User: Fold these one by one.
Assistant:
Number 1:
Amino acid sequence: MCNHQKSNYTRRDFLTKTSLGLGALTLGSMMHPFSLNAGIPESGGILGQPHFTPKVKRVIYLFQSGAPSQLDLFDYKPLLNKLNGQELPESVRQGQRLTGMSAGQTSFPLAGSLFNFKQHGQSGAWVSELMPHTAKITDELCFIKSMYTEVINHDPAVTFIQTGSQFPGRPSIGSWVSYGLGSDNSNLPGFVVLVTKDKFGQPLYSRLWGNGFLPSEHQGVQFRAGKNPVLFLSNPPGVSEKNRRTQLDHLNTLQEIQFDRVGDPEIRARMSQYEMAFRMQTSVPEIMDTTGEPDYIYEMYGEDSKIPGTYAANCLLARRLIEKDVKFVQLYHQGWDQHGNLPNAIKKQCKETDQPSAALIMDLKQRGLLEDTLVIWGGEFGRTNYSQGTLSTTNYGRDHHPKCFTLFMAGAGVKAGTVYGSTDDFGYNIISDGVHVHDFQATLMHLLGVNHEKLTFKYQGRRFRLTDVHGRVVNEILS
């Protein structure tokens, strides 16, 4: 009989007492190859597991940089057409701040939209003729027509909606998600960024998908069109995969020695990135090669989907990435900043984005992926109801307007076929159910199972979070 008070166990004792535990561990690893005995992913985030059961596993954020005109796309205001050319009443403007581009105007003529609107779907959502493909799927969408921000210029506004602060240096939404929840795929980054090629407009900076003060492995990784989708990923000429593996092993040994000396967590974060890059040498070319997609998929997304780096191709690539369990995919599409020549410029933007955006949502749905994937479409603020510059019967421009804009979502956790919030008849002020940028961010984190007030990072003596000291979950739009 074994004496279990002794400190020395025989091999037979060990196997007898631990067989059930080892069996459970083995079964767990077979069912979830990236999990440890506590059920926390090896590439898991700081939370270990969400605060509560998430409705969303993955996010695709289609960011329309430059601020699309809600008044020409989704927020139908027939009064503007009726009063076209008349002055914006001071009772409506109420002395609100203007940008430097129109502050010098002596006249603020109301500009109705040149485009026809119709109601669509059971929700009766108004959609412009510029977005015919989006119009067909309104019953899949949740429109928020009462978004607002306090930021009136592009760079701080984009920075604000992407990081929760107007000032550079804070972590992006995707980085917070990666930090909190980790990744579900050990061979691809948890946060991937796609930027439409050859587009111009307001500049985009890598800090918009940066990790800020979070560990560096949580920064977004930009995938590009072309021979080298990720910069500096390929081995130099003459360096084989075996050579690279040996180099990383030796480097890892040296870095561990350095970590033992100084204890800097960035050392291990850097090594984690090196190891990820090594694995990505195989996984990235595979995910970027869309030649195996059937013809009907290319037809669904549009002809541009065959051209790498276009918005349509990036939408298709976003679907492929979330199929591989990339947790956060961010698309950026420039060109929506239309201070003048808006009617012609917005037509081009909609032609590039309408069909692939709608196709992405329906493609996810037909694959059963929309059930746990959230798709977001929107910009950084709205546009004015008055014309910037000269107003004519065929042309006008619109300045920045932070007091109201439209954003839509589709997929997991949100009420499909919903229109939430409203603006006044002039499309200038919110009259019901305003949703601040921090509210939007809090709601997004909530859908991912994260309490936005509890996911924090201590930096320079203060605990920071995505929503700063603000934000409420907009429960009214949750399914």
Note: The first helix runs from residue 11 to 31.
Number 2:
Amino acid sequence: MNLTPNQRIVLLELTTKWETSIQITERLPEDWRSVPSVFQSLKDLLREGLVQGNPIVPGMYRLTPKGVATKEELLGE
């Protein structure tokens, strides 16, 4: 999968713990801080199976096992 720069940055910030898009955004460099942009990237990553949305608490996200593997690949580049 070819990730856009925004998707890549969001994926690298995600963990396996549930977090909101605002929590993720706050950790990004200032020039990348845009909640709508992060939210769109999360939606794209959800479609690819790299991120999971919390079924009980909407608006919370975490990496899936596939997302963890992709993140490890990116970090190994």
Note: The radius of gyration is 11 Å.
Number 3:
Amino acid sequence: MLKINHFIKLCIAVFMILAIVYVGTLVDFVFKPILSLVTNITIPLMLSVFFYYLLLPLVNWMEKKKINRAIAILLIYLFIAILLIGFFIVIWPTFRTQMLNLFNNAPNLLNALNEQLKEIEESGFLSDFFPADVSPLTQITNYVNKGFMILTNYITSLFSVISNVAIVLFIFPVILFYMLKESGGFSKKLVKFTPKRFHEEATEVVTDINQSLSNFIVSRVLINLALGVLMYIGFLIIDLPYALLLTAVAVIMNFIPFIGAILSAIPIIIIGFIESPSTAIWSLVIILVAQQIQDNLIAPYILGKQLDIHPITTIIIVLIGGDLAGILGMLLIIPVYMTIKIIVIKVYELFIKQKWENA
């Protein structure tokens, strides 16, 4: 009877939550400003968390060198500002030109791709890979058009989300400054949410999460930057069009383990193929060589065994992240998984392990 009562209470609670959500949809004029605020703050908050874990080791190191924490953060801000000025003077003009040219020339690029595919289809090379009643040209063109539409939609949605640049530029540095300055205090506040007898274990969990996420983000940034340099040099050597833009896309996509490398290679090979089949082959060679250097020389030196996740597990959770929230989900799912894993392991050790062994 007691279990039935608990079940009824749970059902009533779920029903009440659903009713509140439904009523909220009817009075959207009340919740719309809140939703707008949450949407506008999401990007600055995500950037703040990312750079918090990226810069935290450097801030802690400077504090150990007897530099005031606030001054250390301001010195880092000054250095970043100098880098940004250099970026906008040296790199941005080329990047912006390539991005605008790519979008403006998209129809011409698709036509050029069709011409290249026609020549290959006429040679009979693709007929070995497709059934006799299927046109290889039509199939490949459809895939490319769908891929280009998906890419365009993602980029358009990304620009629409970050269109309010002023909010990002002014809120993000402020949030990041206080997160870095009060990092120890923030951790202590999290620990206080747990019962006093678990404060020591909660402190260990928070420390482990901070250390793991910081190591992961710093390592991935260094590895991806090294990969980007290798790829960009290779693309310049073969004179690949839109080399800087394609390299930037590859660096961002490579934050997604395994799948990101494949996704970033597709537009590079397509652009290379439009230029000429030999350029596409050389582009693939450069990607493979850069990936091998990254995986066998750079990653083991920088990453070590910090990412203690089995490759199959990584692929599965990345696919789940993509299904839940697209590209953004793929980027965030690994840090989320690492955080949950640390918490679950500690909860298991505290409440389940001993009972299980003594059973």
Note: Residues 311-358 form the longest helix (48 residues).
